[in-house]
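Could you show me just one protein sequence together with its fold in token form as a worked example?
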Amino acid sequence: MSDEKEKLTIAKEDKKVKKLNLREATSCPATLQMIKRMDEDGNDSVFHRAAEMKPCPIGAESACCKNCFMGPCRLNAKDPYAKTGVCGANIDTIAARNFARAVASGAAAHTDHGMGMLDAFRGVVRGTVGHFKIQDEAKLRSVAESIDIPTEGRTVKEIATDLYEELERTYTQVEGEIPFAKRVPPKTLEQWRKAGVVPRGAMREIMEIMHRTHIGVDQNYKNIVTQCSRTALSDGWGGSMVATEISDIMFGTPTPRVAGVNMGFLKEDHVNILIHGHEPLLFEGMIAASQDPVNIEKAKAAGAKGINLLGMCCSGAEVLGRHGIPHAGNFLSSEPVIATGAVDAIGVDVQCIMQALPKVAECYGTKVYTTNYRAKIDGAIHIQFDEHNPLDAPTKIIELAVERFKNRTVKVIIPQRQDWGVHGFSHEYVTYMLGGKFRGSYVPLNDNIINGRIRGVAGVVGCNNPRVKHDEVHVEVVKELIKNNVLVVQTGCSQIALAKAGLLKPDAAVLAGTGLQEVCETVGIPPVLSLGSCVDNSRILIACAEMVRMGGLGDKISDLPVAGCAPEYMSEKAISIGHYFVASGVFTVFGVTFPSVENTKFHDYLFRGLEEEGFGKWGFAVDPHDMAQMMIDHIDKKRAALGLAEERERKLFSMEDRRAAEG
């Protein structure tokens, strides 16, 4: 340990150890083991920093405004209407502006991700991008047909060219409706049109929301929320959906496969490379480069048995379903995994990458490599990834990782924990799984919701947050839901928590209620379905639209017995995701904290008023069982409205019934 580290340990010893209860930090044994090592080594982790840094109570409730330089202005959340900001803005305007800027930032993150994928797709179509290609022609045709692009008798290149040009309007269009609005159930779309929330183009919506929240512009909280809805919908039905669909077309639509999760998949005798971030381009390039015999030979020449590639965060979630590549851990495990000493290189692109990573990595002899010009980090080494030559940067990272393996000096300690689960339940596979290859259909899902075997469907998604016990809230919410016959779908860091808890395996159905258990055993699925990364929340939107189209559960998304939850959210992206589900018609519960003051007009509008206008609504709870109960109560309310309060006798659909439902 260096003198600097020794001084750091001495300075922090009393304060840090007393403030952080290690066992209350995480429910993941592997992460806990590595936090203990970091603690013993005198190194900070996100858990230590969270314990030492109290959240600002005024900012947590959006009772402050720094949108101009006459402030910042702080309002008293206990008496929010007692005073205003210097310009006269009251708590409703201030909180609505802050909420809107979170939506804008979150939507921009997903929209830029989608634009990056579309840029690569354009290069593939035009032949300027090497290595990558269209791998799923069936998905290309189905996406094109869903937005009225003709496919009959046309070549792949002709269809792909039209699709690129049409989807580009998602971003650049200044009037009209984004292309994927055609996928929205007609009655839901009609409601959006009346409310004025159908997105025109993502760039325009994000630009407008930033303008509206500038000082002296929009000062009516309801009007601001209208633009929040339009901007968030441009994410869910725009940028995120484009990212998901283009990724499937280029790299293959996921299908269920057994894959491993946790730090036990690191291998001491291999060159271990971790890929962390969100865009699949880097990871796909790394997969190809790591399988190159020349690179494998370099690793073996250094004394390694091979190259071991693992995922982290949403980059890892992307390849779990597509390739079955093991996942090392979710957001809050990104520092502890470095403490194993086994990671020879970390390649990152964009989103959810802590600035502390290079400093932690330096303590354990690891290097962090940034690869995207949008996201450079002090202390990291930048190697620009170029989709036109997608193997160049990955090959350089592999070479540097091999060098580090050859010169390892830090003791390697790998937690011996490997967890397995089934990942990759795309919308297309669910359709096939329920109806077969030739008559794929959601009818069996709707049927089992109608007859009561499945109470409803819940999306439990999102990040980790060190303000609550890592992973535990996700796991407890889902256990309570499946016990009450609610089928759960998951994306992002949440699904990694559930994989570690063993809930993504078919035998987890024993924890479900008898109705859901029967369905899971019949179909051969777990009670929790893993769908992919955080942009893949768009798969949930598509599933909701399909449930409406199949009939029997209302004619709008807001009629469905469904609910959403982000138990441990931490990012602005989560706010955008939550609001595009609310605007689509889904009751959505967040945990940890919520950026509004209770008993204000703005808060009441989000939590009650939007639902009264025909949208979904927000909910908030800290206790996981409270979250689950709120969702179950909402599902029961929707069942009652549909006349499904009592279980119905099971109806076996004949072929004629299916044709009628699909017509």
